[in-house]
Design a protein that fits this description.
It contains 9 helices and 9 strands. The protein is α+β, with helices and mostly antiparallel strands. It has 4 domains: about 1-75; about 80-115, no CATH class; about 130-215, SH3 type barrels (Roll), CATH 2.30.30; about 215-300, Alpha-Beta Plaits, CATH 3.30.70. A 5-stranded antiparallel β-sheet has the order 4-3-2-1-5, covered by helices on one side. It has a 4-stranded antiparallel β-sheet with strand order 7-8-6-9, with helices on one face. A hairpin with a 4-residue loop joins strand 2 (about 160-175) and strand 3. Helix 1 crosses helix 2 (about 30-40) and helix 2 (about 30-40) packs antiparallel against helix 3 (about 45-55). The radius of gyration is 25 Å and the shape is globular.
C-alpha cells in the first residue's frame, strides 16, 4: 500500500509554491519552469506550466495572478496522521525531539510490536536512557552548528578517553541497532558508538577545514542477483543508502556492484547472506570465501552437507 506518492506529492508542492508567489506578483511561464525545477522533478516543468496557462488547471488569471486570496494549505489526511502517529512511537524518532503532539489522539497505523526485525542484534542501544538522549541531541546540535565537543568516551574494553572532537555525521547501523557518530580528530575521522559516550560538552565553532567523512577506506563487492520474487527490487531497496551500479547480464540475472565502508564489512556479510540463493557473491575472493564459510557452518549445524559450489 502506497501511503505517500513522491511523484504527485511534488506536483502539489510545485503548484502550491507557484500560487504563493502569484499572490504577491504575476508569475510568468519562466517563473513556473524555475519553480518546478526547484520543487519537483521529471517532466513537471513541462506539464505544470502548460496546465496552468492553457486553463486545464484554472488556478491563475490571464495575467498570471492567483485566483485564490490565501496561501494554499493542504491538511493531513487521517491516513497520514495515523502513519505519523506510528512513526512517533519509534524510540529512535523520539531522539530528534520532533513535536508530533497533534496526533496524540490518533490511532497508530501500526505499533513497534508489529515490526519483526531479522538478522539484527537483540542488545541494541537504549534509546530511552535520558543520558543517551541528551548526548544524541548535543551531537546533533554540534553537527548542525559546526561546533566541537569535549567527549568522554569508553571503548569496548572500557578504556576511557577524553578528546575534543568535531562531530561530522550520525549514522545508524541496522544490524547492531545502534547509532554511531563520525568525528574529526587531528585531521582524521574517528567512529564512536553513541552508547560509549559518557559525557558530551558543547564547545565553540570549529575553525579551519574538516576531513571528508566519506573519504574513509571504501571496499567493493560484486553480486549476481537472480530476480526471483522481486529479488532485484528487494536488494536494491535494502542497499539504497550505498553507491551502486546495476547491469543486466541475463534474462533474469543482474550484476550489482556495491561500495561500502570497510568498517561495515561484518554487517555487509550478514546483509548479503539474508537474501539466500537469490544472491551470489562474485568478487572479491576474500568476501566470497567468508560467505561460503558461513554458509557451510550453518548447513553443518543443520546436519546438511554443503554443495560443491555455493
Amino acid at each position: 500500500m502506497m501511503l505517500f506518492n513522491e511523484f504527485y506529492g511534488s506536483y502539489y508542492r510545485a503548484v502550491a509554491e507557484i500560487l504563493r508567489q502569484a499572490l504577491e506578483k504575476p508569475v510568468t511561464r519562466a517563473d513556473m519552469v524555475r519553480i518546478c525545477q526547484e520543487f519537483s522533478f521529471g517532466d513537471a516543468w513541462l506539464n505544470i506550466p502548460q496546465a496552468l496557462t492553457d486553463g486545464s488547471w484554472p488556478l491563475l488569471t490571464g495575467e498570471g495572478r492567483a485566483i485564490i486570496r490565501r496561501e494554499p494549505v493542504r491538511p493531513l489526511t487521517l491516513l497520514e496522521k495515523r502513519w505519523l502517529k506510528a512513526i512517533s512511537l519509534d524510540p529512535r524518532v523520539q531522539l530528534f525531539d520532533v513535536d508530533l503532539s497533534f496526533v496524540e489522539d490518533v490511532e497508530p497505523l501500526f505499533t513497534p510490536v508489529d515490526m519483526i526485525c531479522f538478522d539484527a542484534h537483540a542488545d541494541g542501544d537504549d534509546y530511552a536512557d535520558p543520558a543517551y538522549r541528551a548526548h544524541f541531541r548535543t551531537l546533533l546540535q554540534a553537527i548542525s552548528e559546526g561546533r566541537s565537543v569535549r567527549m568522554t568516551y569508553a571503548s569496548r574494553r572500557q578504556r576511557t578517553m577524553v578528546d575534543e572532537v568535531t562531530p561530522l555525521r550520525l549514522e545508524y547501523s541496522e544490524r547492531d541497532d545502534c547509532f554511531r557518530v563520525l568525528c574529526a580528530h587531528k585531521n582524521a575521522v574517528k567512529v564512536r558508538n553513541l552508547s560509549g559516550v559518557r559525557q558530551c560538552e558543547l564547545l565553540g565553532k570549529h575553525e579551519g577545514g574538516l576531513p571528508d567523512p566519506d573519504a574513509r577506506e571504501s571496499r567493493r563487492v560484486v553480486l549476481e542477483v537472480t530476480d526471483h520474487r522481486n529479488a532485484l527490487e528487494r536488494v536494491s531497496m535494502h542497499f539504497t543508502h550505498l553507491r551502486k551500479e546495476v547491469e543486466r547480464v541475463g534474462e533474469r540475472t543482474f550484476r550489482m556492484t556495491l561500495w561500502y565502508d570497510a568498517s561495515d564489512e561484518p554487517e555487509m556479510l550478514i546483509r548479503v547472506l539474508q537474501f539466500g540463493p537469490t544472491v551470489r557473491v562474485l568478487e572479491p575472493a576474500d568476501f566470497r570465501s567468508e560467505v561460503e564459510k558461513r554458509v557451510r557452518e550453518q548447513l553443518a549445524l543443520l546436519g546438511m552437507e554443503a554443495p560443491g559450489d555455493i
